[in-house]
Specification:
This protein has eight helices and 15 strands. The chain is an alpha/beta fold. It has two domains: 102 residues, no CATH class; 211 residues, 3-Layer(aba) Sandwich (Rossmann fold).
Amino acid sequence: MNFILLLNIDIRFHLVKHKLEFCAIQRRTRNHLLNYNVDFVTFKYLLFYLDELQAILHKLQFKKQDKIYVLGAFTEGGNMRTQCTLWLFVSVVLLIGAAIALGSQKMKILIITGGHDFERDQFFAMFDSMPDIEFTSVEHPGANDIYATSSLQTYDALVYYDMNQEISEEQKRAFLTMVEKGKGLVFLHHSLASYQTWDEYKQIQGGRYNENPEDAAKKSTYKHDVTMNVYILDRDHPVTQGLSDFEIYDEVYGNFEVSADVHPLLKTDHPQSGEIIGWAHAHGASKIVYLQPGHDHHAYENENYRALVRRAIRWVAE
């Protein structure tokens, strides 16, 4: 791959602090010029998380033989020599990262569905859009058989988008063995309602949507087709770092359980929703993430939601 650096320096002296005001990654071919603008917050994230850089290169349809052009401008203080030095550092980091990102190996995940209808094409298109992820899907009944097979070792992480209730004692034991060995698990949306009578599963997930509890006051609720604000609670966690608060059109859950020992990542202020709507967790040797949003294509196609799902997968798989 060939790298070309274009310097575009704009110096202003009203502050003494250096700031990257503009950065763009560009792919040029004979007939096309594709450009991806990177804001300052995103750039800082790219320095540490090459999967985000890989996603940008995928959007620009880069191939290993292509030339990468990096353009940028610093503002707010400093002299030309200092500005150029800083920009050279920026470019070297990005370009080395680009080479690594394009050559990195895809993660393999298993997506488990069944027990709840969903928009299949749009849902799986979300994972197709993730350049560093290769997925296989399996559906209930029969999905729980995977825990006792050698093929389980093929996958770096498991993603649950199911709402299943049937599981044998043998399958439970195999599932718990998997968790003790450290398989990464990501639970999405209605998977919070799986295995209503299996208490240890609630501990593993970090919460539960209660469909028919003995105490009617503990019954969980849902509301379709609402716009809710999503607020980032931990801006330093790998799943949420670099993301800003956002809005999503989705389904909310109310009055669901959240375990006291989870690490909250997301919250909302929607009056018909529980407050905490995303968390990180650990059980046995496994890292676990639950994300409450994700009802239909409005969520699947939301770039912020896609980023959360992708980063959750990467984090639990590490």
